[in-house]
Write a structure and sequence with these properties.
With 280 residues, the protein is an all-alpha fold. It contains eleven helices and no strands. It comes from Paraburkholderia fungorum.
């Protein structure tokens, strides 16, 4: 019986460690996602402000130039002859920039440079394949489905051989195959997967102190707290000095239980206290 209890405690501790590791990974991932979302929002905001300023400036110059040209003195008309061409050229450059072809006199456009680079890469890859004595046909044959290969009369033998080797490597060895989980481990995993509220000796919804939140963090610690309350009530009913037992229980809570900062420590000291109270 004691061996079964120890085995159950070990399984529960192992499950708690796994849960804590997963919780830490999840929190780290959430923090990284929040940071990435904040950076993306900042970049989008700065980009939107920059785009708004770049677009609004030519429009403003064009609007002011037209207004001064139609309704203004000769000084404003002179400035309008500067504002209107500046606004028009600004809108033209914005159009080319949005299209991906910023045109600068005497220099090639971005699309032209990108097309040239892609063409050079294609020629270099074909030249390397020709020097190595290979062609594009085997690659196309490897990408063909089995049905297409049969219809063309060319079976992808290399693909089948590589697939068989990969499937053989993917099969785990007998030493690496997982052993069936014990009923205690399955029960602990079922408890961990259960999304029902955690039940303790008190209402977890009203937990206020750090130790109460730690008790309500996992189903195992909540169950241990309920069993501790039952064991304390039974020991108090049988004790000849309830006041001394109450003082001893308060001393244990302050010195051992409240000193724990994780669920594994809390479960360990609680199980030890339950065994001590049960032996009274």
């Amino acid at each position: 019986m004691q061996e079964w209890v120890r085995q159950r405690e070990r399984d529960e501790l192992r499950q708690l460690q796994i849960q804590q590791i997963r919780r830490k990974e999840w929190r780290a991932q959430e923090a990284q996602n929040s940071k990435d979302a904040g950076d993306m929002a900042l970049l989008l905001g700065v980009g939107a402000l920059f785009l708004l300023a770049v677009v609004c400036l030519p429009l403003f110059l064009l609007f002011v130039g037209v207004k001064w040209l139609t309704k203004g003195g000769w000084i404003k008309r002179v400035f309008s002859l500067i504002f209107i061409p500046t606004g028009v050229f600004g809108l033209i450059y914005i159009y080319w920039f949005a299209y991906g072809c910023v045109y600068i006199p005497g220099t090639p456009t971005i699309r032209y440079v990108a097309a040239e680079a892609l063409q050079r890469t294609f020629h270099v890859s074909n030249g390397d394949a020709a020097k190595g004595g290979t062609s594009v046909e085997p690659v196309q044959l490897q990408r063909m489905t089995p049905t297409a290969a049969v219809s063309t009369g060319q079976a992808p033998r290399s693909t089948e051989a590589s697939s068989s080797r990969e499937s053989a490597k993917a099969l785990p060895s007998p030493e690496m195959q997982p052993t069936p989980a014990s009923p205690v481990a399955r029960a602990a995993s079922d408890d961990a997967a259960n999304v029902a509220p955690i039940a303790a000796s008190f209402d977890c919804a009203k937990a206020s102190s750090p130790i109460e939140h730690l008790i309500c963090s996992t189903p195992a610690t909540g169950d241990a707290d309920r069993r501790l309350a039952a064991a304390y009530s039974a020991a108090r009913a049988k004790s000849s000095d309830p006041a001394a037992l109450r003082a001893d229980q308060r001393n244990w809570m302050n010195s051992e239980r409240d000193a724990c900062s994780d669920a594994v420590c809390l479960l360990t000291v609680t199980e030890a206290r339950i065994q001590k109270l049960s032996a009274m």
